[in-house]
Amino acid sequence: MAWVATPELVGAVSEAGALGILGAGNAPPAVVETQVREIRAMTSRPFGVNVPMFSPFVQDVMEVCAREKVPVVTTGAGNPGPYISTLKRAGAFVIPLVASVALARRVERAGADAVIAEGSDSGGHTGDVGTLPLVPQVVDAVGIPVIAAGGIADGRGLVAALALGAVGVQMGTRFICTEECVVHRNYKDAIVRAGDRGTTTAGHSLGHPVRALRNQMMHRFRALEKEQCTEDELVAFGEGKLRLAVERGDVVHGSLMAGQSCGLTRDVVPAAELIQRIVSEAEALLLRLPQHVSE
């Protein structure tokens, strides 16, 4: 959610009663610090910062999170073990994103407070195990709370995650299509138009595949992999493509990162309205479920 989960969206989500998470991406520490303070000016409620382990500024950004006493820090694309104790001493609730049982166990031993089990249904950098089988396996493997992510866009997904043993859900793609999200309208419209097979993955040869909407850019990315281009060539090809989609709305040459939940996303609404809709759907469904249990 780099370039996507900005202070505008984070503040709106937290104010509406959910937990907004700032996508730090590869942003330098000074930028992250400024954004954290912008969020604090927008809401007094808890919020978080997501820090990917591949960021060239990961150590400095972690120091910013500790110094600014960010309430929640989530991490992705690697093991945050070396930073967990520092963040916890600063009062942060640390929630690494995991795509495997092995990593879930590892970060639990390192002191993580919870984990986000993200399946391959998710957008952006993703793993290779689907959400439905991954979540209960992680739940069975660890003793800390598990949050489900990947392919979830409505109240039905929330209820399903609870049935799998998760305590909550993380959503990314669905919140791109909110009014407070700053991405270009072309990006949002492309997600709304997408169907069940609207996404594809590329970058498997790099060890961290990316899921995005099908377009010319993704077609070329996959072709370059088949041509066995070098890692440097593939990285160079992908550089700046997400920003191109977010800021310029280039739906042809940009990387429109999105999960398979795009087929469930049909409109652009305020974040507060979306959150209320999800909660209402989940509550109504939970009330109906007992009818399927025989006495």
Keywords:
single chain; 295 residues; TIM Barrel; 2 domains; 13 helices
Q: Tell me the name of the CATH class of the largest domain.
A: Alpha Beta
Tell me the CATH architecture of the largest domain: Alpha-Beta Barrel
The dominant shape is: globular
- What's the number of structural domains? 2
**CATH homologous superfamily annotation of the largest domain:** Aldolase class I
Q: What is the count of helical runs?
A: 13
Major pleated sheet: 7 strands, parallel
Q: CA-to-CA gap between the ends?
A: 46 Å
CATH topology of the largest domain: TIM Barrel
Report the average pLDDT across residues: 91
Helix content: 40-55%
Strand order of the largest sheet: 1-2-3-4-5-7-8
- Which class do the helix and strand fractions yield? alpha/beta
Strand content: 5-15%
Spell out the helices and strands N to C: HEHEHEHEHEEHEHEHHEEHHHH
As a whole number of angstroms, the C-alpha radius of gyration is: 18 Å
